Amino acid sequence: xxxxxxxxxxxxxxxxxxxxxxxxxxxxxxxxxxxxxxxxxxxxxxxxxxxxxxxxxxxxxxxxxxxxxxxxxxxxxxxxxxxxxxxxxxxxxxxxxxxxxxxxxxxxxxxxxxxxxxxxxxxxxxxxxxxxxxxxxxxxxxxxxxxxxxxxxxxxxxxxxxxxxxxxxxxxxxxxxxxxxxxxxxxxxxxxxxxxxxxxxxxxxxxxxxxxxxxxxxxxxxxxxxxxxxxxxxxxxxxxxxxxxxxxxxxxxxxxxxxxxxxxxxxxxxxxxxxxxxx
Length: 279
Fold this sequence. Notes:
Elements lengths: L1 E14 L10 E19 L3 E5 L10 H9 L6 E7 L10 H17 L5 H7 L3 H6 L2 E6 L3 E4 L7 E6 L6 H10 L7 E2 L14 E2 L3 H7 L2 H13 L4 E2 L6 E5 L2 H8 L8 E5 L7 E4 L2
Parallel strand pairs: 3-4
Antiparallel strand pairs: 1-2, 1-13, 2-4, 2-5, 5-6, 7-11, 7-12, 8-9, 10-11
């Protein structure tokens, strides 16, 4: 069985104060994008996870296992899972949550698991979104999703600078900054199909800059080279800008500074995790 799972960008991310649950309620506009991770599932005598493309933990802390435990707490047979990573990690693109959504989809096919948004949200805030994909408004702790009409007419130049940002550390820094508003983009700086959703703003950007000032240097340099506003996805450090065609986005990628971890022209996609084949 093969499942593919997309990445995402937070076109907008508004954050509220940490509440009694210990988490920050969110209001985000999220778009599924290329690239994809691929997961292959095969029933086996014991659990085993292989990861290709990057070195990551394969033990019980991996979100793939966390998702499978939540979906099927008493599995009688093991699973051999092979994960081919294309989505950059620790980048604000939701790769781990996307893989978890793929594991839940596999559990539906293998074990007759009945999908529930509350279970998905308990694994990670982005997991319910990756079950649906496309363009959506995400609220609460990720469990409240409102699908939006597909936005068309744009592509993205996506860049991951050469450093990591810890999501918990960024949220903690945001708490200490008295919840400053982030950098925002609106009006004619947005593609026509997104203007009704603006202004687009990421409240976590000031906190990310506080932790790693280099991200503002990268954003400013990209904005200069591309002659347009540049936004950050999630808790960073991924940066992106809108272009009218894939060709324009590809040309923009050719202009980025040396040393990025990942750089690619990408397109929005209208789906989440997908089951491509099973045996």
